[in-house]
Design brief:
With 246 residues, this protein is of the alpha+beta class. It has twelve helices and four strands, in the order ββααααααβαααβααα. The chain has helices at 21-48, 51-56, 60-70, 72-75, 77-84, 90-95, 109-124, 129-137, 144-149, 186-201, 205-219, 228-244, and strands at 3-7, 13-18, 97-101, 151-155. The protein has a four-stranded antiparallel sheet. A hairpin with a 5-residue loop joins strand 1 and strand 2. Helix 10 runs antiparallel to helix 11 (205-219). It is elongated and about 70 Å long.
C-alpha cells in the first residue's frame, strides 16, 4: 500500500495509508452485492403485491417519479451512505476504508456529490475501466472523482507499527479526567497523536493551540490540565482508559 502524506493548513504533515486497488475493488463489489440484494427484494415485493401493475395505471411522469423514489437507495447509494457515515459505504466499512479530504479534514456533502457525479461518468464510459486505470497510476490512488473533489480513500486497518498507534501507558489505578473523549474515534485520536507529536518535536506551539481548540470544539471538553501539552497527553490516556475498559 502506498503512503499518503497530507499537509494540513497548519503545515503539519500527517501520514495515512492509501486504500489499495484490491481493497477498493473488493469494497465496490460488496456495495454492488448490497445494491443487487435491495433491488431484488424491492422488485419481488412489487411483483408479489402487484403494485407495479397499479403504478402502470398512472401517467408516465408519475410512474417514473414513483420508481425513482423506490429505487433511490440504488441510484444515490454512495452519496447517501458516505454523507451519513462520514465517507463510508457498507463496502468501505467492511473493508475498513474511508473518504477524506487531501487537506486532512472531513469531506463534506459537496465532495461526496462530486464523487457520485463522476462515478456515473466513469461507469458509463468504459464500465469503470478508466476509474481503475486512474487509481492504479495515481500517486494517491485516486479516481477521477477523487481528483476533482480533492479527496482520497484511506485504509483504517491496523497495519502500522506501535509508534504510530494510539496506545498509551495507563496504570490500573488511573483516574480519567475527560469522559467526553469517547466522542472521538480511533482514527481521530491517531490523527491527534501524530499531529501532537510532530508539533512538540518542531516546537510548533501555534499548532498545539489550534489542536487543543479543535478538540474542545468537537467534544465539548473543558481544559482542566493546564498547558496544551498536558491537555493532549491526558486526553489520549483517557481515551485509552475508556476504550480498554469498554
Amino acid at each position: 500500500m502506498s503512503q499518503l502524506t497530507i499537509t494540513t493548513t497548519q503545515n503539519v504533515g500527517i501520514n495515512f495509508t492509501a486504500a489499495s486497488v484490491g481493497d477498493r475493488m473488493l469494497g465496490q463489489v460488496l456495495d454492488i452485492l448490497v445494491i443487487i440484494a435491495y433491488s431484488t427484494v424491492v422488485t419481488y415485493i412489487l411483483n408479489a403485491t402487484e403494485l407495479n401493475i397499479y403504478f402502470a395505471s398512472f401517467d408516465n411522469w408519475s410512474t417514473v417519479a414513483i420508481y425513482i423514489i423506490i429505487y433511490s437507495p440504488v441510484i444515490f447509494y454512495s452519496i447517501i451512505q458516505e454523507s451519513i457515515w462520514e465517507g463510508r459505504t457498507i463496502g468501505k466499512k467492511i473493508m475498513k476504508m474511508k473518504v477524506i479530504k487531501i487537506d486532512g479534514y472531513q469531506a463534506g456533502f459537496g465532495d461526496y456529490l462530486v464523487r457520485w457525479l463522476f462515478r456515473l461518468v466513469e461507469v458509463l464510459i468504459g464500465f469503470g475501466v478508466i476509474s481503475l486505470i486512474t487509481v492504479i497510476f495515481s500517486d494517491k490512488n485516486q479516481r477521477l472523482g477523487d481528483m476533482t473533489a480533492g479527496t482520497a480513500v484511506i485504509s483504517l486497518k491496523n497495519n502500522v507499527n506501535i509508534n504510530h498507534t494510539i496506545l498509551q501507558e495507563v496504570n490500573e489505578d488511573y483516574v480519567p479526567t475527560y469522559p467526553l473523549v469517547i466522542k472521538l474515534s480511533d482514527n481521530d485520536v491517531r490523527i491527534i497523536k501524530e499531529t501532537f507529536e510532530t508539533a512538540v518535536k518542531n516546537r510548533d506551539y501555534s499548532t498545539l493551540i489550534k489542536l487543543r481548540e479543535k478538540v474542545i470544539s468537537v467534544t465539548g471538553i473543558k481544559n482542566q490540565s493546564g498547558n496544551d501539552q498536558d491537555f493532549i497527553r491526558t486526553l489520549m490516556k483517557d481515551y485509552n482508559f475508556y476504550t480498554q475498559n469498554m
